[in-house]
Amino acid sequence: MTFSPFRIGVSDEVLADLRARLAQTRFTTRSGDQPWQAGADPDYLRDLVSYWIDGFDWRAQEADLNALPHRQAQIGGRRLHFLHVPGTRPADAPAPPPLILSHGWPSSFVEMLPLVDRLTNPAQYGEDPADAFDVVVPSLPGFLYSELPNGPLTRAAMARTLHALMTDVLGYQRYGAFGGDIGGVVTGWLGALYPEQVAGIHMIHPPFPASFDSHPLSPAEQAYLDAEAAYDETDGGYSAIMGTRPDTIAAALHDSPAGLAAWLVDKYRDWTDNRGDLERSIDRDTLLTTITLYWATGTIGSSFRQYVDFGHNGPRPAITVPAAFTVSTEPSHANFPRDIAERACTDIRHWSEPGRGGHFMPLEQPDLLAGELRQFFTSLRPR
């Protein structure tokens, strides 16, 4: 398989239409007494839309994105977009090992960009230049510039696509994998399906086992599962509608950029480690870059497909490759017991609970996470 260069290019017509739609936004009133009590706060949304119209410079963001080496490949007859950034190492050092970084929902390849320089050119950050990696950052199938597969979008199907990218397209014989959220689940599947080629996996959201039947739940496991179920009662509405009525909500979000922003920003605020202020964790230019990419590509609906097709997922085999976890501090992962991850992974080498950084940790805590990735994957080098 081969790949070709790719450039992001949003037409003037699309941008003009976007601004016109934003200018015509009809804002709702707040349902509760407190901001964000009932979802995306109308006052915050109004301010964000105003900045999107008059302050946000998409062309500058687009130029910065296009300074990176974007590529596209045909895998299974479908286009996959990815970044491929070679590592910078001393001439006498071995070739940099490859590492694939996979995003989740409602995210994009943009989430991983703060990690790229830190991992490909560690000398710029005061780290050992011999610890550089070749970094690959895909857009998962159905997101932005990557097409959906012909069949159901299962976690295993995504893993097969990414493995083909790393081995058949890029020619790597062995590689490491990192991910969060859906990308983390896919990372777990890579380790389970390809233990001979996957050197190790690293996630910020530890995996559940295919079954809890092997032995009784510990008190810590039961307490966590109960807390997660209680949290889902307040947070799970988004996934319920995306999994059962995706075309209904997609019609609204595909037509209204302010609605799209509200849908995404609600989760960015809830899931980041922000102490009540979203932009403490992620600045608005980064937020609007991802939202604009969703808008310009018209892929919010296709990003729902992995929710729609969830029932097609089979049980994942045990993960036997070396595994590391830097656990997110978001509410759904508070007090996540290592016992659960040990049911899914037979060789956990590193477990860290840093107490900072949420669902989008590569954006929120890039120095912390790059250090954890570097420490784990360099430990797997042959001695």
From TrEMBL:
It comes from the Bacteria. Keywords: Aromatic hydrocarbons catabolism, Hydrolase. One of its GO terms (biological process) is epoxide metabolic process. Pfam families: EHN. The active site is at D181, Y307, H359. InterPro entries: AB_hydrolase_fold, Epox_hydrolase-like, Epoxide_hydro_N, Epoxide_hydrolase. Residues 4-112 form the Epoxide hydrolase N-terminal domain. The keyword Hydrolase applies. The keyword rRNA processing does not apply. One of its GO terms (molecular function) is epoxide hydrolase activity. Belongs to the peptidase S33 family. This is Multidrug MFS transporter. It comes from Dactylosporangium siamense. The lineage of its organism: Bacteria, Bacillati, Actinomycetota, Actinomycetes, Micromonosporales.
